[in-house]
Design a protein that fits this description.
Blueprint lengths: L1 H11 L1 H12 L7 H4 L3 H7 L5 H18 L6 H15 L10 E5 L6 E3 L4 E5 H5 L4 H16 L2 H14 L1 H10 L1 H18 L3 H17 L6 H10 L9 H6 L3 H15 L11 H9 L1
Parallel strand pairs: 1-3
Antiparallel strand pairs: 2-3
Bound molecules: zinc ion.
Zinc ion binds next to helix 8 and helix 12.
């Protein structure tokens, strides 16, 4: 229950971050073509790296913006369940101590989102299409993979440099938490509309199957979800964003195939309990 409340607080915090976003949008950005050519490396040096506490602050801001666009589903049992499952998976990772938070969004589309620092959301529409717990574990572990490998931090560095120039972006990131939040709110839309690098998606798939297997689930859960997506018409509105921001399911399955055959074929994990049974457990 505590976790659910925390997520709700994050959702409520949105009311406070709206003006920050508007404020950022109102800036006259001093875009100088020369600065756009600054490299991400240069930017990283100027920001002395986005360290873990900055990563968490940016993630909170992204989570608030995500929840502003798509609110949490009002179902405490389900929110408790997704947090328990998600945290169990995250505890198998190399960053178990991040403030991991999981949530189900009240949205019929099929999608999952991660933010830096460990906030992870799946849509109600995605949950409804899961055949078993191992599939859901596969999806959550893919998102956990993005957090572990700091894919969003990388995207922020690339995006900020291209859009604002290293000096301008670094001046915001280095000032303090308030400026950092303003900066995060300003780049949020761009980051999530563009999606991550293809190679980062493939890496999250590889990390995801390993985490799911370590947690005791069938490692083929994620490939099964990719097969569902493969059979899906990509012009279906509920899937548009996912197909636009990810490599094709066929490419993802091909890349996973080698790893799966060499490492997981002989060690089948669990499909997990039925969702019906789980929800009974969590509604007690
Ligand atoms: Zn992804």
């Amino acid at each position: 229950m505590r976790t659910y409340k925390k997520v709700l607080i994050a959702s409520l915090a949105l009311a406070l971050c709206g003006p920050a976003a508007a404020q950022f949008g109102g800036f006259k950005l001093p875009i100088d073509p020369g600065k756009v050519l600054d490299t991400a490396k240069n930017f990283t040096e100027k920001t002395k790296e986005i360290d873990e506490s900055k990563e968490i602050t940016i993630g909170q801001e992204f989570a608030a913006s995500l929840l502003g666009a798509k609110p949490l589903l009002n179902d405490p049992t389900l929110q408790r369940y997704i947090n328990t499952l998600g945290r169990w998976l995250a505890s198998q990772s190399e960053r178990p101590d991040l403030p991991w938070l999981f949530g189900v969004l009240d949205d019929e589309g099929f999608n999952a989102f991660a933010t830096p620092g460990g906030n992870i959301f799946v849509t109600k529409g995605l949950l409804a299409r899961m055949h078993n717990e191992a599939e859901l574990a596969g999806v959550l572990s893919h998102e956990i993979g993005h957090v572990l490998r700091k894919h969003y931090v990388k995207a922020i560095q690339k995006n900020a440099v291209a859009g604002f120039g290293a000096d301008f972006a670094a001046s915001y990131i280095n000032k303090g938490p308030a400026e950092l939040k303003t900066f995060a709110a300003g780049i949020f839309k761009d980051i999530y509309a563009k999606g991550l690098d293809k190679d980062d998606e493939f890496e999250a798939d590889r990390v995801g199957v390993v985490i799911a297997a370590r947690a005791g689930f069938d490692a083929y859960g994620l490939p099964a979800v990719l097969q569902t997506l493969q059979a899906q018409n990509s012009s279906d509105r509920g899937f548009t964003l996912l197909f636009e921001t990810h490599p094709s399911p066929t490419d993802r399955l091909e890349k996973l195939d080698k790893l799966m055959r060499s490492r997981f074929e002989s060690s089948p994990g669990s499909q997990g309990r039925s969702f019906e049974e789980r929800f009974k457990e969590f509604s007690r």
